[in-house]
């Protein structure tokens, strides 16, 4: 299948590599391909420059957000939460219309010590806050902004390294979640997850559930800190 | 041990019954014991009147919040989230000073259809919002209001029916979480959880983690709805 991955961060690279490995035709989208390839320093998350990654993965194509999205039958949104709605709504309508868009972003707002009245300190700085939560979610904002697109929230409950390789965590018996208002789009996401190796995929219903999936980020981070960064998954035991 | 359970709701009754069954000396606290015993209708959550419950559990005592807390060596806070800080700070200082207070409340604010711009419909009404979240938590508010008390957040990640009986869910191999700023209080909570049957108890560190534990409520509710109310637990697979 032709799949677009929007974003060049560490999570996007996981999906690009895994999907290409599964035989899909993957195009990675970025705001400005020239600028992305010219970068020689790690990004704000410490991810190495994209040019080296692309050189190591010659099967992948790099294009603008618009060209990548237009080329994809399915689109994975790996644009950071703070920029996702603006970047997606700036694309030409046909690039996303009628397509499944799988969104795994967390709408983080990075904070400094002085920004927060009650800062939650971590080894890497103050815990980010969420720009959207509780009575709305980033995924719902994207869906409202793109009514012709079929948004599925998925992947967001764990690190993308383990989303694409669930069997590397414990026995591999843990749970992945999908939510959205379009059953056929959730089936597309579920098929992709099965190809990654997921055996327990729980449909959480309408896209309202994205509120819980995004807000789960703080819980995930607390567990991540407690385990000292050791990879983990979450199994719904029933 | 002498244990106070503050609150007479369904969750509080689970702990009162289980702890009495384990041989503890349990006092249940309520705002006005006379009013609690006089009630003949189910409460807003559909829980039957307390008088009948007490008649069925003659080992339990009922007292005011202040007298129950004063009698307890350990206190379990089952007062609803909206009222917890006010009710706890109204108690005489010595009733809670130096004691472990295990808090499992979610700071829910119940909403009507018209209150919410983007209501999340459920079979029982609009999903409540959270009064405190993201950059603070109810547990931290309680800890700041009661600096001489040792607050532990626990139990909150699942229904209290299964907190007190973890082996009734799946294989019983799922995870319970504790967070707090006082290691000895977390040990007290952990010992109580082991007596309930928990084998996997993860210490999430400082009380900041209560933010994630409380915000997990929306995720829990989404899973609960997806499973049609079937009991479940969450296992951290690592």
Can I get a quick summary?
Chains A, B: This is NAD(P)-binding domain-containing protein. 2 copies of one chain form a homodimer. The first copy, chain A, has a single domain, classed as Rossmann fold (3-Layer(aba) Sandwich), CATH 3.40.50.720.
What does the model show?
Two copies of one chain form a homodimer. The longest helix of chain A is centred in the C-terminal third of the chain and has 17 residues. Chain A has an eight-stranded mixed beta sheet, with helices on both faces. In chain A, helix 8 links the parallel strand 11 and strand 12. Chain A is built from nine helices and 13 strands. Chain A has 238 residues and is α/β, with parallel strands linked by helices. Chain A has a single domain, classed as 3-Layer(aba) Sandwich (Rossmann fold), CATH 3.40.50. Chain A is 34% helix and 21% strand. The termini of chain A are far apart. Chains A and B meet through strand 9, helix 9 and strand 13 of A and strand 9, helix 9 and strand 13 of B.
Find the structural class of chain A using helix and strand composition.
alpha/beta
Shape of chain A: globular
What is the name of the CATH architecture of chain A?
3-Layer(aba) Sandwich
* Unreliable segments of 5+ consecutive residues of chain A: none
Q: What is the total number of structural domains of chain A?
A: 1
Radius of gyration of chain A: 17 Å
Distance between the termini of chain A: 34 Å
Biggest sheet strand line-up of chain A: 3-2-1-4-5-10-11-12
What is the fourth-level CATH superfamily of chain A? NAD(P)-binding Rossmann-like Domain
Largest sheet of chain A: 8 strands, mixed
Give the overall pLDDT of chain A as a whole number: 96
Q: Largest interface, per-chain counts?
A: A-B, 49 and 50 residues
The number of distinct β-strands of chain A equals 13
SSE ordering of chain A: EHEHHEHEHEEEEEHEHEHEHE
As for the CATH topology of chain A, it is Rossmann fold
Indicate the proportion of strand residues of chain A.
15-25%
Helix content of chain A: 25-40%
